[in-house]
Amino acid sequence: MTRPHGTRHRFPRTETVVGHVRRLIEQRHLGPGDRLPGERDLARELGVSRPTVRAGLRALAGMGIVEARQGAGTFIRQGPPRLASEPLGLLATLHRVSRGALWEARSLLETGAAALAAERARPEHLARLAEEVAGLFASTHLPAGFLAHDIAFHRTLAEASRNPIVASLVEMVSALSYDQRLQTTAAATGEALRTEAEMHRRIYQAIRAHDPAAAGEAMGDHLTSALGRRTP
Predict the structure, then answer these.
(1) Do residues 100 and 181 touch, judged by C-beta distance below 8 A?
(2) Interacting residues of 77 by C-beta distance below 8 A, sequence separation 6+
(3) What are phi and psi of 67, to 5 degrees?
């Protein structure tokens, strides 16, 4: 394939691959869940080497655009866009962002997400939230399982906001607090975890009732309680 005049000089070769996939998405030739052409086909079509194609695909994976599935190929990611938390984590470390500031950011994002979910949640979101609440109550004696259901509940709630940017920001900020949440959950008593499970049920009930104010308030109460239980 003949390369467009000047492309070699204007763009790094890896960017040629990224730009090509971007255009396919913009022109609706590729969408969530679709499989990309194979490395050999992309290399031939773009006039670049297969290592260049692989480098381009790694760049796209780092952006959260594609994911590689062993033995199946490379696919456009489904679900809300994923924003890498590493740069934000590094900035938080560099500027010594406190745990309180992190929880404050989570509170602002997740109370808003809960209110949106109360307005927009679909039946499948409600069903998944109910399943996670049941899982929380069933795991009050198993901190690792409790945390898994907790994370899944918050992720589902963010998706139920049906705002992909909000969902992505919630996921990114939540990832920064994972280690702290792990320590806090591991140190919690069964009674404390039952209280947290009840708070999640209250959030779910407000969303199911399509009450944005109650959903936001319930989420705020939950996060305030979680902040109070955090370890030093």
Answers:
(1) no
(2) 32, 64, 65, 66, 67
(3) -140, 140
State how far the Cα of 114 lies from the Cα of 121, in Å rounded to an integer: 10
**3-class secondary structure, 67:** strand
Query: d(Cα 41, Cα 14) in Å, to the nearest integer?
Result: 15
What is the pTM for the complete model shown?
0.66
User: DSSP readout, 8-19?
Assistant: HHHS-HHHHHHH
Residue in 180, 169, 179, 182 with CA at minimum distance from that of residue 64: 169
Q: pLDDT per residue over 141-178, tens digit each?
A: 988 889 989 988 999 999 999 998 998 888 888 877 77
DSSP 30: S
Q: How many helices (H) and strands (E) does the chain have?
A: 12, 2
CATH topology of domain 86-229: Four Helix Bundle (Hemerythrin (Met), subunit A) (1.20.120)
Do the Cβ atoms of 136 and 150 come closer than 8 Å? yes
The DSSP annotation for 200-212 comes to HHHHHHHHHTT-H
Could you please state the CATH topology (level 3) that the domain comprising 7-76 is classified under: Arc Repressor Mutant, subunit A (1.10.10)
Q: What is the pLDDT of residues 74-124, one digit of tens each?
A: 999 876 555 555 555 555 565 676 777 777 888 999 999 999 999 999 999
| Residue 31 falls in which region: left (phi positive, over 0), alpha (psi -120 to 50) or beta | beta
Residues 6+ apart with CB under 8 A from 33: 75, 76, 78
pLDDT of residue 83: 52
Sorted by where each begins, the domain ranges of the chain are 7-76, 86-229
